[in-house]
Design goal:
Chain B: Keywords: Cell inner membrane, Cell membrane, Membrane, NAD, NADP, Translocase, Transmembrane, Transmembrane helix. The complex is a heterodimer of chains A (302) and B (94). Chain A is mostly helical. Chain A has ten helices and no strands. The termini of chain A are far apart. Chain B is mostly helical and 94 residues long. Chain B has helices spanning 3-20, 29-40, 43-52, 57-93. In chain B, helix 2 packs antiparallel against helix 4. The termini of chain B are far apart. The chains are: A mainly alpha (302), B mainly alpha (94). The interface between A and B is large, with 108 and 81 residues.
């Protein structure tokens, strides 16, 4: 068992509260009457999750510092707040300006950011395992954490490159026609197998080439998985990528032993998968053929 | 937390996610997708931890970059959902 420094009860409770808010948010969005309060509950949950994290994992100048004010690394704290502010401005301006007809591609673009953020967090944990409490006494990363980290980075990278393709197709920068590579199923399965084998190998050897090859192959497979899917099926794909971004967050949550990320990631992952299934059914499309890409590409009615 | 505790939390949360969206109205598919997207930016928690962690400059900047990306998603995601829901409400009134 790898043990991270004991998380205080109030942090766990705050994360639990955030998780409940997110559950109610998803539930609220299921019916028109409760949808707006659902959105507000989602915001509340996110405020609590971010606030708790900022308060507990605040940057400190001395390792092991406990004094709240004097040990605070004010510069770094300001940089973090600035990073949030930059994101807030970009996010709000984009959300205000975007045409309502461009919603699907906007959501796809947002997904790619979540995927890339997951990759960044995974890479940060890989570069600095001691700070995340996942290093063993020898300085090597705990084997269990390597699997979780590898999976998180892989899913994050797939989410990123897949969402970029979905965005390009929906936005018309790329033809909505399915691009069928010869032998694509063999290529895709081969790449997926290579990723899984490398993550397995990562347990015995945490060399950088393994980590970065997993990352590179995952970027490639995200691209390969989405190019054979036609433009009409893209909303389902965007929802599926949403689900992936949840799984990526959950995997990173396992790595960091963070209950907020695990609860929310699992919630988003499974509800996103169900939503894409529901959307497929509404469009009279076979779920498997959409996700596997291009099996039924010829008979797309839409 | 030991692995089994974490795994239990994970599996139960998966089931909650599975059951919570089954009854969604078709008109709400896109807003639901967009709110789910906003919620998936909980990755910001990991990004904040990475940014605040001492000991590696590379890891700090990766963390800060991830904070920016996740924040775009948080603010943009909830704002866009609110916009869609506002439109939906107007349609209902007519």
């Amino acid at each position: 068992m790898h043990e991270v420094a004991h998380t205080p009860a109030w942090v766990m409770l705050a994360y639990l509260f955030a998780g409940v808010c997110f559950i109610l948010a998803l539930r609220g969005l299921s019916s028109p009457e409760s949808s707006r309060s659902g959105n507000r509950l989602g915001i509340l949950g996110m405020v609590v999750a971010v606030g708790t994290t900022l308060a507990y994992y605040r940057p400190v100048t001395a390792v092991g510092g406990t004094d709240l004010v004097s040990d605070l690394d004010a510069t770094l704290f300001a940089e973090i707040l600035a990073a949030i502010a930059i994101g807030a401005v970009i996010g709000v301006v984009t959300a205000r300006r975007i045409a309502m007809t461009a919603m699907p591609q906007l959501v796809a673009a947002f997904h790619s950011l979540v995927g890339l953020a997951a990759v960044c967090v995974g890479a940060a944990a890989y570069l600095n395992p001691a700070a995340f409490g996942i290093a063993e006494a020898s300085g090597l990363i705990h084997p269990g954490s390597r699997v979780e980290m590898g999976l998180g980075v892989a899913i994050g990278a797939i989410t990123f490159s897949g969402s970029v393709i979905a965005f390009l197709k929906l936005n018309g920068n790329m033809s909505g026609k399915p691009i069928m590579l010869p032998g694509r199923h063999v290529i895709n399965l081969g790449t997926l197998a290579a990723i899984l084998i490398l993550i397995g190998y990562f347990v015995s050897d945490e060399a950088p080439w393994v980590f970065f090859t997993v990352m590179g192959l995952s970027f490639a497979i995200g691209f390969l998985l989405i190019i054979p899917i036609g433009g009409a099926d893209m909303p389902v794909v965007v929802s599926m990528l949403n689900s992936y971004s949840g799984w990526a967050a959950a995997a990173m949550g396992f790595t960091l032993q963070n209950s907020a990320m695990i609860i929310t990631g699992a919630l988003v992952g499974s509800s996103g998968a169900i939503l894409s299934y529901i959307m497929c059914r509404a469009m009279n499309r076979n779920f498997i053929s959409v996700i596997a890409g291009g099996f039924g590409g010829g008979d797309a009615a839409a | 937390m030991d692995f089994i505790t974490i795994l239990s939390i994970f599996v139960l949360a998966c089931f909650v996610g599975y059951f919570v969206v089954w009854s969604v109205t078709p008109a709400l598919h896109t807003p639901l997708m967009s709110v789910t997207n906003a919620i998936s930016s909980v990755i910001v928690v990991g990004a904040l931890i990475a940014a605040a962690a001492a000991g590696s400059t590379g890891s700090k900047w990766l963390g800060l970059a991830a904070v920016v990306m996740a924040s775009i998603n948080i603010f943009g995601g909830f704002a866009v959902t609110a916009r869609m829901l506002a439109m939906y409400k107007k349609k209902e009134r007519r």
